[in-house]
Amino acid sequence: MNKVILYSTSWCSFCHAEADWLKHNKVEFEMKDIEQDDTAMAELKEKMGGEFRGVPVTVIGDEIIVGFDRPKLTQFLEIERF
Predict the structure, then answer these.
(1) What residues pair up with 7 in beta bridges, in sequence order?
(2) Angle, in degrees to the nearest 10, between helices 13-24 and 70-77
(3) HSE, side-chain direction, 13 A CA sphere, residue 69
(4) C or N: which end of the chain has fewer Cβ atoms within 10 Å?
(5) Does the pLDDT value for residue 82 go beyond 70?
(6) What's the CA gap between 1 and 13, in Å, rounded?
(7) Helix, strand or coil, per DSSP, at residue 54
(8) Taking the CA of residue 70 as centre, how many other CA atoms within 13 Å lie in the half-sphere pointing to its CB?
(9) pLDDT above 90 for 50
C-alpha cells in the first residue's frame, strides 16, 4: 500500500475524525500538523501547487484528497465497505 499522509491542525475536528476513521480501518498513516511544522506546511503547499485552502488533506501515493471524503478514501485505500 502507498504511504498515507494526513495534513492537519490541532483544532480541526474533521482532521481528528479522519484520523479516528483511519485508525478504525487499521490504516497506517503519518499525521503532520501544518501549524506546528513549517516543513509540513511548505510540503503541502508544494503538493497543492500553491493552492492551499484548508485541512484535512490526505496524500496517498500521488493522489491528493481534500477534506474528509470517506468514499474517495475508501476507494483509494481499498477498504471494504460495510
Answers:
(1) 32, 57
(2) 40
(3) 16
(4) C
(5) no
(6) 26
(7) coil
(8) 10
(9) no
> What's at 79, amino acid-wise?
I
Is residue 59 within a helix (H) or strand (E), and if so which, with residue range?
strand 57-60
Q: Which residue has the cell 504511504?
A: 3
What is the reported pLDDT for 81? Answer: 58
Tell me the per-residue pLDDT of 14-29, one tens digit each, with 9 for 90 and over. Answer: 999 999 999 999 999 9
DSSP 9-42: -TT-HHHHHHHHHHHHTT---EEEETTT-HHHHH
Residue whose C-alpha cell reads 483544532 in the numeric block: 11
Return d(Cα 20, Cα 45) in angstroms, integer: 24
